[in-house]
Specification:
Layout (H helix, E strand, L loop, with lengths): L10 H4 L32 H9 L4 H7 L2 E3 L3 E5 L2 H7 L11 E5 L13
Antiparallel strand pairs: 1-2, 2-3
Length: 117
């Protein structure tokens, strides 16, 4: 019977490398940068979404290139572009799959780094 088979446990909780510091929830207040009031959002973003990313160190070029997203619960995410997908995608990733990458809660870029590289 399929009903009697054990369900696999969440491997994150049983891995030896698991540490509560790696949990995705916020643990403190993220320092925010001030942004100019004239910063207009890209067409796909509301002003609040765009401001949240800029305050956390993202640049307009990064937001546009990687389609960045931010949520209070999980932080900043990027969607892999074609080049990343082709270079790092494994055989289980199929054409049409999407790759969402968690980047943390804030960027600290060099002054001349406008694209996040």
């Amino acid at each position: 019977d399929d009903e009697n088979e054990e369900q696999p446990e969440d491997t994150l909780l049983i891995e030896a490398s698991y540490d509560s510091d790696r949990e995705q929830g916020p643990r403190s207040t993220t320092p925010l940068s001030s942004i100019p009031r004239s910063a207009r959002p890209l067409p796909a973003y509301t002003q609040a979404e765009y401001d949240a990313l800029l305050q956390r160190g993202a640049t307009r070029l990064m937001i546009e290139t990687f389609h960045l997203e931010f949520s209070d619960e999980r932080g900043i995410f990027a969607w892999a572009d074609t080049a990343l997908y082709e270079e790092f995608g494994g055989p289980k990733m199929l054409k049409g799959d999407f790759w969402k990458i968690q980047l943390g809660r804030r960027f600290d870029l060099d002054e001349d780094d406008h694209d996040g590289s």
